[in-house]
Amino acid sequence: MTSDTPTPLDELLRLREAHLGKALSIAHGKPLHITHGSMQYLYAADGTRYLDLVNNVSHVGHSNPRVTHACAHQMGLLNTNTRYVYEGLTEYLGRIADTLPEPLSVGFLVNSGSEANELAVRIARAHTGAHDMVVVEGAYHGHTGMLIELSPYKFRGPGGKGEPEPWVHVTPIPDTYRGGERDYAAEMGEIVTNAAPIAGFLVESMLSCAGQIPLPPDYLSSAFEHVRAAGGLCIADEVQVGFGRVGSYMWAFEEHGVVPDIVVMGKPMGNGHPMAAVFTTPEIAASFEEMEFFSTFGGNPVSCAIGMAVLDTIEEDGLMQRATELGERFMVGLRELQERYSIIGDVRGRGLFLGFELVRDRETQEPATHEAARLVDEMCARNVLLSTDGPHHNVIKIKPPMVLSKGDVDTTLSLLNESLSQSL
Ligand code: PMP
User: Fold this and answer.
1) In which element (H, E) is residue 330 found?
2) Of 10, 90, 101, 242, which alpha carbon lies 20 to 30 A from 110's?
3) Which amino acid residue places its CA nearest to atom 10 of ligand 1?
4) Which of 121, 238, 265, 267 for a ligand 1 pocket mutation test, highest count of atoms within 8 Å of Cβ?
5) What is the pLDDT of residue 1?
């Protein structure tokens, strides 16, 4: 069945019911039957055009022609694996290494963020000889067995065990809105010191599932010092926030003047084609040489061609500059809405990775969870896709394809105003 002849929604839902596990829920509350996408827009079977403000995978736009062409062209030429020598692989690795600070020059290419984080932890363990890990409260790092145990978002959530495994140490979310101006790095340091020796600290350079939270100044630099003093490696999970999304920097850790020992990237890397990577130093990579490493699909010529097209697009279309400008435009507009509507307790973010937190009362900060879900529904009814996150699911997140326009930002702000004034 092609997108020219869409299957009726009822039938699709019946087939999902029959063939998909119930552990997978549908986005946006109501089923959206999407037939195609183009840049920042998704098109539904009934002809509705949705502005996509949540898909940070389609970084350079849904069905971006340059990416589509690179994929089709390479697929018709050669697709093999990394046991062979081909230009695409080495050129791509070199190109990513050029975006990273020295000495992060050795890359491992895999197929998903989960795989990459799993590999990063294995590398950290091989290098340090230690086993324990430190993670931030509320974090999600992937769906494999080990990563569920390293994801408080999961093990504390529905179906989870509740408490961390003995080798997992959880440090508080450095959330200056909810937690106030505390010395989060010192609290983290105490946890790390008690846990030593550790293999590493797995941390997002800007928190996503924990509630779209930029890390406070000096947090990461001081946390990294504690980790290194405890013998561990610092692993930056850039799966959500990398590839220029924060605007001013290619990698979100750069804002903090630190150089991680390992960087993990994924989601936007292949603009929807499954690609992820771990980059580290030659010295650390050397500790991981004993056991053979091979990923069947990771780094194949088609993936490399796609990855290269994504990087070319970011650079040639000035998407980081665009993220900075549009992010600022969003921030100004959201702050105006915050002045008008007391339900908006906080507005935060960098570039096109933004969040605004809804509270019932600014004093008590009671999370407006239900209202946040309703606002997302209201916006969906106005053909704008948003979603919620954070431990209380009361943070509306904005992380659209980076090809957004000023007009999209202005339309969103005016529709948010309309929704907030009419229904909340
Ligand atoms: N790290 C972070 C920060 C993520 O948000 C995700 C996915 N949401 C992952 C890792 C796992 O990536 P994947 O779903 O590609 O396995």
Assistant:
1) helix 319-340
2) 101
3) 141
4) 267
5) 45
User: Do both 17 and 78 map to the same domain?
Assistant: no
- Report how far ligand 1's centroid is from the alpha carbon of 208 (Å): 10
Single residue among 316, 339, 358 that ends a domain in this structure: 316
Tell me which residue range forms the domain holding 340.
12-63+318-423
Q: Report residue 350's pLDDT band, with 50, 70 and 90 as the boundaries.
A: very high
- Distance from residue 237's CA to the centre of ligand 1 (Å): 9
The most confident of 20-24, 178-182, 410-414, by mean pLDDT: 410-414
**Would you tell me how many other CB atoms lie within 10 Å of the CB of residue 14?**
12
Tell me, in angstroms, the distance from the centre of ligand 1 to residue 364's CA: 32
The length of the chain, given as a count of residues: 424
Q: How far is CA 264 from CA 102, 246, 317, 366, in A?
A: 15, 16, 24, 34
Q: What is the mean pLDDT of residues 145-169?
A: 97
The answer to whether residues 94 and 114 belong to one domain is yes
Which residues are near ligand 1 (CB < 6 Å)? 112-114, 117, 140-143, 204, 208, 237, 239-240, 266
Q: How far is the CA of 266 from the centre of ligand 1 (A)?
A: 7
Pocket test for ligand 1, best of 212, 240, 246 (most atoms within 8 A of CB): 240
Q: Which of 268, 240, 233, 342 is nearest to 58 (CA)?
A: 268
pLDDT, averaged across the chain: 97
Task: Give the contacts of 117 (CB within 8 A, at least 6 positions apart).
Answer: 141, 142, 147, 150, 202, 235, 237, 239, 264
pLDDT, tens only, 203-220: 999 999 999 999 999 999
344: left (phi over 0), alpha (psi -120 to 50) or beta: beta
> Does some domain include residue 1?
no
What's the rounded mean pLDDT across residues 336-342? 98
**Mean pLDDT within 48-59:** 98
* Residues 47, 84 within the same domain: no
